[in-house]
Write a sequence for this structure.
């Protein structure tokens, strides 16, 4: 991960760049820049078709081992793939949770039967996934979940509530953390279950956000069922498996996120020029700092992927979440009075969507407070925070 170009890597870059140029055309041409945080409602069915088109060409799950349907790419080529995908403004993929989270988790912890059942359908984008972690009383504190699962014959019966479940309304399956050992507390007695969504006992209620969209949902399990064999990593080992999933979530694909951030920053800079805000020395300084900070975030990510930092995932989340939220605030300042105007149907422009959705960046995916505790306790060895 020294960033030095190599012939094989540059050939691979040219290959993926050419494929994207040739295929983001015709019926897919209008999908450039569509989807993403706060905009997952955009052209969902067309983006699903695009994702399946990628699968047919062998461009899904590129980091997975070849024996599981992937390309077995090393870190450097994974970085190239995600960077070129972002630079092409290719649409946000609808299969992220399957490809980047539950798939690698199954490869690491799943049984051979689970791998055979689920992995091919993730590669082909035939089944979509959502994540059943947070609860009303257990947001970033995963060890405090109260959703319960009881083994009833050859099936688990699941009862409880999840919240902030991204894209649950489109998902076919959910990976759920539930308490399977009665009387257990905290990290003990949790299991990682794979639960079908289309069944009695599963209710999805979309949550209306500030952006007037509903990526997030409440999910209620009332005696929902799944096969006894759909527990990953063994009963009672759910916390360990869930932490591994979170580690996969903050992997190479975050570099593509930073390129998307750069495009947003470029829009903010252009807006500052158009409105004249760039003539303000303070605004200019903040724009320069934003560019420098984004480069720092990128270098940290590359160093983390190279295995040089134990605290990389938590530090990265703190860095990008706070940077992005600040960018949203800066966007409103440079836009001036226009930032306060919306269409009659609450139609938001890109900068308004950036500002409103980025308010959640320091909360979802592990709040700032939780990330600081992780760094303090697990890396620096400081005393644990008092807990009730």
């Amino acid at each position: 991960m020294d960033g030095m170009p190599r012939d094989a890597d540059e050939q691979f870059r040219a290959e993926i760049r050419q494929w994207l140029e040739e295929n983001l055309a015709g019926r897919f041409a209008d999908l450039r820049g569509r989807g993403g945080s706060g905009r997952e409602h955009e052209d969902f069915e067309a983006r699903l078709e695009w994702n399946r088109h990628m699968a047919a060409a062998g461009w899904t799950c590129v980091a997975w081992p070849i024996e599981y349907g992937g390309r077995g790419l090393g870190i450097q080529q994974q970085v190239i793939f995600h960077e070129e995908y972002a630079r092409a403004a290719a649409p946000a993929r609808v299969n992220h949770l399957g490809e980047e989270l539950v798939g690698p988790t199954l490869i690491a912890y799943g049984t051979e039967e689970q791998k055979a059942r689920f992995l091919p359908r993730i590669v082909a984008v035939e089944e979509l996934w959502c994540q059943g972690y947070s609860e009303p009383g257990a947001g970033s504190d995963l060890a405090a979940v109260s959703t319960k699962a009881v083994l009833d014959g050859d099936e688990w019966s699941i009862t409880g509530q999840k919240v902030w479940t991204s894209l649950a309304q489109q998902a076919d399956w959910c990976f759920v953390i539930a308490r399977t050992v009665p009387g257990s507390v905290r990290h003990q007695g949790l299991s990682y279950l794979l639960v079908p969504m289309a069944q009695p006992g599963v209710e999805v209620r979309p949550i209306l956000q500030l952006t007037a969209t509903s990526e997030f949902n409440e999910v209620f399990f009332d005696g929902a069922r799944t096969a006894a064999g759909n527990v990953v990593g063994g009963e009672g080992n759910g916390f360990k498996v869930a932490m591994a999933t979170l580690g996969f979530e903050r992997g190479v694909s975050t570099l593509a996120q930073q390129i998307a951030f750069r495009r947003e920053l470029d829009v903010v800079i252009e807006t500052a020029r158009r409105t004249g805000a760039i003539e303000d020395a303070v605004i200019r300084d903040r724009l320069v700092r934003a560019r420098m900070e984004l480069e720092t975030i990128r270098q940290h990510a590359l160093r983390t992927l190279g295995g040089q930092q134990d605290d990389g995932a938590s530090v990265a989340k703190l860095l990008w979440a706070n940077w992005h939220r600040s960018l949203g605030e800066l966007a409103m300042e440079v836009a001036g009075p226009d930032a306060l105007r919306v269409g009659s149907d609450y139609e938001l422009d890109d900068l308004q969507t950036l500002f409103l959705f980025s308010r959640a960046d320091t909360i979802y995916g592990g709040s700032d407070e939780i990330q600081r505790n992780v760094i303090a306790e697990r890396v620096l060895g400081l005393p644990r925070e008092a807990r009730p």
Observations:
- The mean pLDDT is 89.
